[in-house]
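Inverse folding, one chain.
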């Protein structure tokens, strides 16, 4: 029992013994397939002007086949910050609320691509 957290293929070894002590075994393969690919809208934690900032898209993509590639499609990255692979880092230089449009792509043989909006607020 349990919850699978990633796609995988695992061997299972089954051994059965009856009340007389006669046993038999077999090997099965458990194939865990990826769940549906999802990339929900989200937000980055708030930051402050002049204070070092570093974080990753906190809800991020799930399902599909990791690893994921996240890119910036549109919107404004707060001045002073740099976007790289879903992460924002640097020292913000201007207060405001910024909305970024991000794209996530999974690593499936036929890659799936989704977009999401992420908001970040920088306070003075």
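Residues assigned per position:
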């Amino acid at each position: 029992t349990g919850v699978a957290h990633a796609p995988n293929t695992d061997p299972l070894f089954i051994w059965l013994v009856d009340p007389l002590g006669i046993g038999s075994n077999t090997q099965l393969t458990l194939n865990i397939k990826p769940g549906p690919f999802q990339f929900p809208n989200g937000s980055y934690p708030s930051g402050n002007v002049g204070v070092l900032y570093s974080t990753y898209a906190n809800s991020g993509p799930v399902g599909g086949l990791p690893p994921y590639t996240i890119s910036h499609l549109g919107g404004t990255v707060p001045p002073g910050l740099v976007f790289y692979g879903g992460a924002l880092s640097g020292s913000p230089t201007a207060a405001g609320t910024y909305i970024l449009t991000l794209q996530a792509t999974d690593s499936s043989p036929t890659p799936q691509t989704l977009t999401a909006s992420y908001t970040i607020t920088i306070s003075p």
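The chain has a mean pLDDT of 90. DSSP finds no helices and ten strands in the chain.
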